[in-house]
Amino acid sequence: MDQARGHSPHELWGLVARQAWARLRRRLRAGPSYRWRYSGRTPERVLIAPPDLRIADPQVARDIYHGQFLLAGQLVETRGQSPFRMPITDLAWQDALHSFRWLRHMRAAQSDLASANARALVEEWMSLHGKRISGVPWEPGTTSRRVIAWLQHSSVVLQGAELPFYRQFLKMLAVQMRYLRTNAREMPDGEDRLRARIALAYCALSLPAPATAVKAASRNLAQELERQILADGGHVSRNPRAIMELLTDLLPLRQTYTNQAEQPPQALIDAVERMLPALRFFRHRDGSIARFNGMGITQHDSVAAILRYDDTGGAPLLHAPHSGYERLALGATTVIADTAAPPPADLSHFAHAGCLSFELSSGRHQFVVNSGIDNYGDDSYRPLARTTAAHSTITLNDTSQARFSLSSQWSDLIGTPLIGGPRKVECRRDDGAGAQRFTASHNGYVSRFGLIHERALSLSEEGAVLEGVDRVVRPDGSASTAIGNDAVAVRFHIHPDIDIFRDPEGRHILAGEATDTWLFTVEGIVPVVEESIFFAGLGGPRRSRQIVLYTTASEHPEIRWQLRKTHAINGNS
Fold first, then answer.
1. Which helix (H) or strand (E) segment is 552 a member of?
2. What gap in Å lies between CA 11 and CA 27, rounded to an integer?
3. Where is the Heparinase II/III-like C-terminal domain (predicted)?
């Protein structure tokens, strides 16, 4: 596999132009005049409430009734006020509020009180935000999630509703449907654009619509699926989290087609059948999803709910050439590595500078990890979590492979795309008898320092030995001559649940439990243990540690290290 990509200044200016044009067009289509743009017949009824795979908790419904909204990791107490009037500036909280996915908790409560509260909140939203299309409530991605949630939980919202509310709810659904239909093709590339097509397919199936509307929604959905879901089941953003989120919407949609006696588009069937094994590809044995390119905290119940639909069986794939990842798996050991260039600029807002990083798990323990991101935490930590130093790979001259920070004016317009990074990544798989291995290289440091990074990983002895070779050399394969400008740091971030000990010989032992420990050794370099941060903890960022190998490319152009499974702990921490 040879992947060449890069984000030149021309690409960034192109992204600026596209985003500015899309914003202008959305503004022209919004405002008080939307009534004539998005008005039309009001559907007579909701034909079917599609299922929702997301985990629901009746206690959350009780908390919401008492004015406590824990959304996107932030708790807001309304104290009798409308949540839609709260002066909260956190955009993630606002998006979660206006997306209405929390309606599932009302449905789980199965009570008249929860239903009345759901109806009151929907009515409040329609009163405050239904008459003017503007701001966060009407961002197309937010609108798509809200439409899906309103349809999925229409039974609880409409339970006991009087006719005027029933008609207004259906009218508002139709307005949002027409708004999405008008704006979907102009949405930024990526997950939200696909979700808009998913929402429109839900509408065509759940509301009375002519056969031509169902066909059109299915055709547009199929085109977007074929474009965004890669041949190996990955998403074009290279973010494992996108696979999980999209499957949570696509699986119920497939079922809704069946429930309505409609044939699902073949592209939908094919995409789901590719994505389920892809999700398993990124899954460690403890159920966690590997932390690459925007993946953070794993909601284990959510993953389990999705994988109940996976009837493919057998071991996960070992090679994802289109997504750009490799998996080594023998015995109880799993290694997952990032072996591709960053995604295109439009899709890189969550991408990390972690090319050639890897994670290692053994049994139910994760040992070597990437720092991941805190999905619900302070956004100010995101740039740090995306840097190369937050990944288990090499940094050169204390410099990240790419950067993400832009001025606030740029960020407000185009977000936080990855700037720079590897333009060419080559990967070669070379499995043999009793061993799985690959060799990959990237040129992310060539423009600045004239050096490439090549990494070879080999898993053998039934998963008991992981051998690594890191080479930092010039593009022609010769050793560096840039003395003083070729400082190398090889980082191995250790999961916070793992203890680090030294044995009597001074070697480092990683201990998960008495029966699952690993010995770390390296040739010619003294490892250093330093503090680190694991951003993807269930309770938020956690302190952790990392093993770092400091050297120079001129002194050690080739660094050989090994992780060997052992069963004894005999040393000091």
1. strand 542-552
2. 24
3. 314-562
Pairing of strands 394-396, 487-494: antiparallel
Residue with tokens 């930092």: 472
Q: Within a 13 Å sphere around the CA of 93, how many CA atoms are in the beta-carbon half?
A: 20
Name the H helices within 436-536. Answer: 446-449
Which tokens in the block code for residue 426? 């080559």
Determine the distance from the C-alpha atom of residue 533 to the mean position of all C-alpha atoms in its chain, rounded to a whole number.
Answer: 19
User: Which H or E run includes 519?
Assistant: strand 516-522
Q: Are 125 and 157 within 8 A, CB to CB?
A: no
Our CA angle for 255, 261, 267, nearest 5°, is 55
Answer whether 174's CB lies under 8 Å from 42's CB.
Answer: yes
Which residues fall within 8 angstroms of residue 239, CB to CB, at 6 or more apart? 292, 293, 294, 295, 350, 351
564-to-240, 401, 416, 434, 459 alpha-carbon distances in Å: 28, 29, 39, 16, 10
Query: What whole-number distance in Å separates Cα of residue 323 and Cα of residue 237?
Result: 9
Residue 268 tokens read as 């939908």
Measured in degrees and rounded to the nearest 5, phi and psi for residue 556 equal -130, 80
Q: Classify 384 as helix, strand or coil.
A: helix
Can you read off the two tokens belonging to residue 557? Answer: 């152009």
Contact 316, 283 (CB under 8 A): yes
| SS3 at position 454 | strand
What is the residue-level pLDDT of the chain in tens, covering all 573 positions?
Answer: 555 454 555 566 566 666 666 666 666 555 555 556 677 788 899 999 999 999 999 999 999 999 999 998 889 999 999 999 999 988 899 999 999 999 999 999 999 999 999 999 999 999 999 988 889 999 999 999 999 999 999 999 999 999 999 999 999 999 999 999 999 988 888 999 999 999 999 999 999 999 999 999 999 999 999 999 999 999 999 999 999 999 999 999 999 999 999 999 999 999 999 999 999 999 999 999 999 999 998 888 889 999 999 887 666 789 999 999 999 999 999 999 999 999 988 888 889 999 999 999 998 899 999 999 988 777 778 889 999 999 999 999 999 998 875 555 555 566 788 888 899 999 999 999 899 999 999 999 999 999 999 999 999 999 999 999 999 999 998 888 878 889 999 999 999 999 999 988 889 999 987 678 999 999 999 999 999 999 998 888 999 999 999 999 999 999 999 999 986 544 454
CB 145, CB 101: distance < 8 Å: yes
| Alpha-carbon span 302 to 245, nearest angstrom | 9
Least Cα distance to 101 among 221, 224, 245 occurs for 245
Please tell me the distance from the alpha carbon of residue 408 to that of residue 449, in angstroms, as a whole number: 29
Neighbours of 564 (CB within 10 A): 15
CA dihedral for 322, 323, 328, 329, sign (positive or negative):
negative
Q: Which residues contact 411 (CB under 8 A, 6 or more apart)?
A: none
Residues 6+ apart with CB under 8 A from 28: none
